[in-house]
Structures are given as structure tokens and as C-alpha cells.
């Protein structure tokens, strides 16, 4: 998504990017660029600046602890050409371990054609291969292969067109799904990982929101907090419920069940340097008809992430 960057001193940077008119996974939502495409742009910005401006070695691992995104749909429409965007970015809460960057917070305002289009914050930590191996070794044994993805919910119910892009599997309980983690997905797993990536969990939250409110969604606000690694060999449960009164739709897939369960009780806290309150998050798009949804992901009855999503009413 990114095309260049320029430092301005005092940890301020201008990053440029381009959003394609068509993307195989971050598909258009009612003629607008996918907000998760914007979130991915922010994530990539953090990695770019860490490597280029703070000398984080390419071999180091990144852990994203939270991401908050506000979008203005007025300026996210898909035009006749790819959208050129500028991210005015500041890095704060910078921490070092010895001579290497250990963590930072990214704060950015995204402009398109001179118009403020989105704002975002995200926090990251960076760890060496040796530290990462010590963190992950108890949870990545050879005898713990990834779970086979359970059957997908119907793509239409979660705002998707292809089953391979569905990350939720139905259960008999309304507004409760099993996570589908396909480690061969070319976008969500564009390189090998020993855990479920954060962007897949945010996509699960968006799909759960779509199923809950009953129509494709263009979130205007997303807040996500990650508290633990989502292990590939353990079942992940996704729960969604409205945080403000509005009409909900019954889970259209409760006639199909999946009984995939696990009994492994490893606690997989990925937070090796500090703890972070998961919080609840609040939406900002509080106009008439906006909905607010809270999504929680759990493994072994332990929360691994929480997301709150605000969406506008459906277009007519």
C-alpha cells in the first residue's frame, strides 16, 4: 500500500500510499474503499518506519497491541483512478532495549486529495528472534499442527462473496461463531506465522458485525485490543453483541453446527514486556441509525482480543 516516506524531525514523518480501485481481499463496501484496507495501511506504516527510521532489523518480530481507526466515508469513495493518500504520522511512547527499538505508538492522520479521510493510532513492540523463540516455544510444538478450518458460514451473511474469504464458522448459538483460520490464505497469511494474525481477528470482528446487523458494513470506527496470541492449534470462539439498542438479526447459520473443541490449557500471553487493559472502546459515529457492536475472541475461556465497531445505517 505504501509508496514512500519523508522524515521531518522529532519523530514526525510523511508517508505516502496508494489504495487500488480493486483488491482481491479488501473489497469495496458500497462503492467505498474497505476500512480494513485503511487499517492495513496503518499497520504497514508502523513496520516501514520501524525498519527505516528506527533501525529495527528485518529479522525482528512485531507485536501489535491495539489499533483504533476513525474514517470519514465522505472521502473514502472509489474514484476513476487509484486513491493517492498521505499519512501525517508521529511516533510517541518510544522505548528502547539496549540499542534497538523495543516499542512505540503510531499516531496518524490520513489525507486524500487534501481532505482528512481517517485518523488512527496503534502500538507495537519489537523483539529479537531469540526473545521471540523463548516467548513462543511452549506454544509451537511440532505435535500441535494448526486446526483444520471448520465449514464457513454463508459468504453473503458476513459481507463476502467467496467462501475462502470467510473467517467465521456457524454454531447453534446466536451471535457466536468458531474462527476459521486458513493458514494458506494468500493475503491473511502472506508469510508463515505461528499464530493467527491480528488483521484476521479484526476481519472476524467485522464479519461478525455484518452478521449481527444483517447488512454489509462500512465501519466508521474500529477499536481493537489484543491481549494474547491466538494459537493456531486451539479453537477460537467469536462472540458479538450490540452495545447500544438496535434491531438485530438472528444468526442465519444456526441450523449448521460445528463441534470442534479443544482441551489444551496453555496460557499464551504474548505480552512479554507490559500488560494492557483491554478496555471497551467507544464509537464516534453516533448519528441517527448508527450501530455499535462489541466483539470478543476467546480461547480456553480466556479473552484474546476485543473489538468495538461503529457502523452507519445501510444505504438505500
UniProtKB/TrEMBL annotation:
Give GO terms: molecular function aspect only.
Answer: transferase activity
Q: Where is the signal peptide?
A: none
Where does this protein have compositionally biased stretches of type Pro residues? 143-153
Stretches the record annotates as Disordered: 139-166, 240-316
- Xref: InterPro entries: AfsA-like, AfsA_hotdog_dom
Domain named A-factor biosynthesis hotdog: residues: 2-126, 158-251
Q: Enumerate composition-biased segments (Low complexity).
A: 248-279, 294-310
Q: Which NCBIfam families match?
A: ScbA_BarX_GamBu (NF041195)
Give the protein name, as stated in the record: A-factor biosynthesis hotdog domain-containing protein
Amino acid at each position: 500500500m505504501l509508496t514512500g516516506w519523508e522524515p521531518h524531525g522529532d519523530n514526525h514523518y510523511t508517508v505516502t500510499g496508494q489504495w487500488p480501485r480493486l483488491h482481491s481481499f479488501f473489497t469495496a463496501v458500497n462503492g467505498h474503499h474497505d476500512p480494513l484496507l485503511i487499517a492495513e495501511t496503518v499497520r504497514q506504516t508502523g513496520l516501514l518506519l520501524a525498519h527505516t527510521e528506527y533501525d529495527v532489523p528485518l529479522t525482528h518480530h512485531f507485536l501489535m497491541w491495539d489499533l483504533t481507526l476513525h474514517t470519514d466515508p465522505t472521502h473514502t469513495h472509489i474514484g476513476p483512478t487509484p486513491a493517492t493518500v498521505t499519512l501525517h504520522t508521529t511516533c510517541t511512547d518510544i522505548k528502547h532495549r539496549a540499542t534497538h527499538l523495543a516499542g512505540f505508538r503510531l499516531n496518524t492522520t490520513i489525507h486524500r486529495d487534501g481532505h482528512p479521510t481517517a485518523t488512527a493510532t496503534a502500538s507495537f513492540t519489537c523483539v529479537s528472534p531469540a526473545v521471540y523463540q523463548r516467548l513462543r516455544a511452549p506454544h509451537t510444538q511440532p505435535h500441535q499442527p494448526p486446526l483444520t478450518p471448520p465449514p464457513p458460514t454463508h459468504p453473503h451473511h458476513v459481507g463476502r462473496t467467496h467462501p475462502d474469504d470467510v473467517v467465521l464458522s456457524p454454531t447453534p448459538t446466536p451471535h457466536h461463531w468458531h474462527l476459521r483460520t486458513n493458514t494458506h490464505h494468500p493475503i491473511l497469511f502472506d508469510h508463515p506465522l505461528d499464530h493467527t494474525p491480528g488483521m484476521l481477528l479484526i476481519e472476524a470482528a467485522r464479519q461478525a458485525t455484518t452478521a449481527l446487523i444483517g447488512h454489509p458494513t462500512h465501519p466508521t470506527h474500529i477499536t481493537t485490543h489484543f491481549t494474547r496470541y491466538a494459537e493456531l492449534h486451539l479453537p477460537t470462539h467469536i462472540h458479538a453483541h450490540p452495545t447500544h439498542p438496535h434491531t438485530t438479526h438472528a444468526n442465519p447459520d444456526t441450523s449448521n453446527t460445528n463441534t470442534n473443541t479443544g482441551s489444551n490449557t496453555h496460557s499464551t500471553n504474548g505480552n512479554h514486556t507490559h500488560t494492557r487493559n483491554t478496555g471497551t472502546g467507544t464509537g464516534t459515529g453516533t448519528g441517527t441509525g448508527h450501530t455499535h457492536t462489541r466483539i470478543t475472541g476467546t480461547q480456553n475461556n480466556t479473552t484474546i482480543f476485543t473489538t468495538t465497531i461503529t457502523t452507519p445505517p445501510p444505504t438505500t
